[in-house]
Write a structure and sequence with these properties.
The protein contains 14 helices and 32 strands. With 647 residues, the protein is α+β, with helices and mostly antiparallel strands. Strands 9-8-7-6-5-2-1-10 form an 8-stranded parallel β-sheet. It is globular. It binds alpha-D-galactopyranose (GLA).
């Protein structure tokens, strides 16, 4: 038995490996030739899809799980219109797991669960169409979103509980995911049914491996575990990327005008941090949010240090909002406001996960707070950058489109009331010039301040301000003030590691503390950062600390979208004082549209910081390369202190 089972699994695995090898080879053709540090000479981030701003809308999952149905969805959609939320920007109405009944065996066409979605009924039980449902949403002024999985099977099938509504029928009928049906399914969803948005989950790649009891008992066909959530060394990064890229390419073909949104849901695994921006319009950075304070913190933390990986068209996704439930319900308005403010400062997608048919006005008031939404939807698309951090208190600053305007969240993570001092330096504003501030939750202007201002915060409270002052650099901007215009073309990471700071994920609240608990699970430790080293240290060269700059690893290449708007680039560069790798030397190179504009000599750890200065008039894309010249055994941390573009 055992032999036979493994035998057949191997055949599957071999066929799969071959198919994937083909996909990866295709992808490699598009990828850049050998030297990752060679300047591309142009902005390399592909632009696709309809996500110039972080998507806003509603999704059925947090409210209804698989018990989603037409009344619930349309009822919430009507409430969104009636409450003014649609006009405040919530445009997408998305269904999640649970909508499907089966895959028709005569031709592989997906069948809708019509008991839940009666408007999808056709001439026979296996003849269904979401078109009327989608048309109804369109007629209400919404866009419509659907849901699938990149593997053969879905999350609900991998992790069912007592009231999960599952696909029915034979093993093959229950294979509802995109795998080997990408073209057919996406054509159906986007061309025939008219959906505008798809979230593609990844449970098919981790919950159906040959060792799983449900697979062993014959309920599902085995699929090799390409994602091993807590073991990045066992996760098949290239294969996973290739599968999602295939779905993106298909969408590009079906919707050449780019009117689609592609949401990748692989929970921050498989180093999606590094490639999400090239493959999707948004990608989850963590496991699922739960309506608990600690869980929200974990989701927030998973994006908070990834400010250089997000920007117009491509967004870090800390998961959907849980406002309305548990620690964020109408009895916890402080927590609900904090959750919303944090998502807004991070330019996160704002997808409501609440049954709006019965929403109390106080919650609608939070979700509809126009001035807060405007922070999330600011056209510059910058994610917030951490200006101050500790276990209890954080200050996060987001540069807005207007040069002299920023949003700032002062966030009390803890359970004690506390005080905080916001300084002009946190804002990169001149300390001697007055700073105007508006409290966005209180909806009132505060007295202008100079230098610094003090704030009192209740437990778990966030003060959210919109401030206006005189930029420290009057005729330019620090690169760390324009994170959306940076693209990490090569991160210099030698070996993928989980981020040891993001490990607060608690078990699912089931009281299951058998075993030794959850461990850091996500890849992504060591990527470049704004105003921080990749390992979360202060930027420091030869004993001097720098509040502004970019920290990276050696053998990295960063692109900057300069768009011909600047005249000079300048930075003080060197091996950072915190670098473990001290034996190496690094050369810093600055390219403008592929041309070498400036470079440092080979710098050793003991050398003084080197001032780079380049004329960047007319340059569209600037590329910053830190090239390791003499190799070091340990990773070399480099600092581009005060890196700035001036006009
Ligand atoms: C995964 C996703 C969730 C949701 C469920 C549906 O857990 O991360 O957002 O889509 O699957 O089963």
């Amino acid at each position: 038995m055992r032999q036979a089972r493994y035998g057949s699994t191997m055949v599957t695995a071999k066929a799969l490996a071959l198919a994937l090898a083909g996909l990866i080879a295709q992808a490699a053709c598009h990828a850049q030739a050998s030297d990752p540090l060679a300047p591309a000479g142009r902005w390399s981030l592909p632009s696709f899809g309809a996500a110039a701003l972080p998507p806003m809308g509603w999704n059925s999952w947090n409210a209804f799980k698989t018990q989603v149905d037409e009344d619930k969805v349309l009822g919430s959609a009507r409430a969104i219109v009636a409450s003014g939320l649609r006009d405040a920007g919530y445009r997408y109405i998305n269904i999640d797991d649970g909508w499907w009944l089966k895959r028709r065996q005569s031709d592989g066409r997906m069948v809708v669960r019509t008991r839940a979605f009666p408007s999808a009924r056709g001439s026979g039980p296996e003849d269904t169409s979401f078109r009327p449902f989608v048309q109804q949403l369109h007629a209400m002024g919404f866009k419509a979103g659907t849901y699938s999985d990149i593997g053969r099977n879905a999350c609900s099938q991998g992790y069912p509980d007592a009231d999960t509504l599952l696909p029915v029928g034979s093993v093959a009928e229950r294979e509802v995911g995109l795998y080997e049906h990408v073209e057919q399914d996406l054509r159906l969803y986007f061309e025939e049914w008219g959906f505008d948005y798809i979230k593609v989950d990844g449970c098919g790649l981790n919950a159906f491996s040959p060792d799983k009891p449900a697979v062993q008992s014959g309920q599902f066909r085995a699929f090799p575990a390409l994602v091993v959530s807590d073991a990045i060394n066992q996760t098949h990064v290239d294969e996973i990327r290739a599968l999602f890229a295939q779905a993106r390419d298909t969408l590009l073909r079906l919707r050449p005008a780019g009117d689609f949104v592609f949401s990748i849901c692989n929970w921050g695994t498989a180093n999606v941090r590094a490639w999400g921006r090239e493959v999707g319009n948004l990608w989850r950075t963590s496991d699922d949010i739960e309506p608990r304070w600690t869980r929200m913190l974990y989701n927030f933390d998973s994006v908070a240090t990834r400010e250089l990986y997000s920007g117009p068209g491509h967004w870090n996704d800390p998961d959907m909002l849980f406002i309305g439930h548990g620690d964020f319900d109408e009895h916890h308005l402080t927590e609900a406001r904090t959750h919303f403010a944090l998502w807004a400062i991070e330019a996160a997608p704002l997808l409501i996960g609440y049954d709006l048919r019965q929403a109390p006005p106080a919650l609608l008031d939070i979700l509809g707070a126009r001035e807060v939404i405007a922070i999330d939807q600011d056209p510059a698309g910058n994610q917030g950058v951490i200006a101050y951090t500790s276990d209890d208190l954080q200050i996060i600053v987001k540069q807005l489109a207007a040069r002299d305007e920023k949003a700032v969240v002062i966030f009390n993570r803890g359970l004690a009331p506390t005080r905080a001092t916001l300084t002009a330096a946190h804002l990169k504003f001149k300390p001697e010039a007055p700073i105007a501030a508006r409290d966005l939750w209180a909806r009132r202007d505060l007295a202008a301040f100079t230098g610094e201002a003090a704030f009192s915060l209740a437990p778990r409270e966030s003060v959210l301000l919109r401030v206006k002052g005189t930029p420290e650099l009057e005729h330019g901007r620090y690169l760390s003030e324009m994170p959306a215009r940076l693209f990490v073309a090569a991160d210099g990471i030698r070996a993928l590691q989980a981020d040891p700071q993001i490990h607060r994920v608690v078990d699912w609240g089931q009281g299951n503390t058998r075993g030794s608990g959850t461990r850091p699970a996500l890849a992504g430790w060591g990527g470049p950062r704004a105003d921080s080293t990749p390992y979360n240290n202060e930027l420091r060269l030869r004993g001097s600390a720098f509040a502004s700059g970019i920290g990276a690893l050696a053998d990295s290449r960063l692109q900057v979208k300069a768009d011909g708007q600047f005249t000079r680039f300048g930075a003080l560069v060197g091996i950072d004082d915190s670098s473990l790798g001290r034996a190496g030397t690094v050369r810093f190179e600055v390219y403008g549209d592929g041309r070498l504009l400036a470079q440092s000599p080979d710098l050793a750890a003991a050398d003084p910081a080197y001032a780079l200065d380049a004329d960047v008039r007319g340059v569209g894309t600037l590329e910053l390369v830190a090239r390791e010249r003499r190799a070091s055994r340990d990773p070399v941390v480099v600092t581009w202190a005060q890196a700035a573009l001036t006009q």
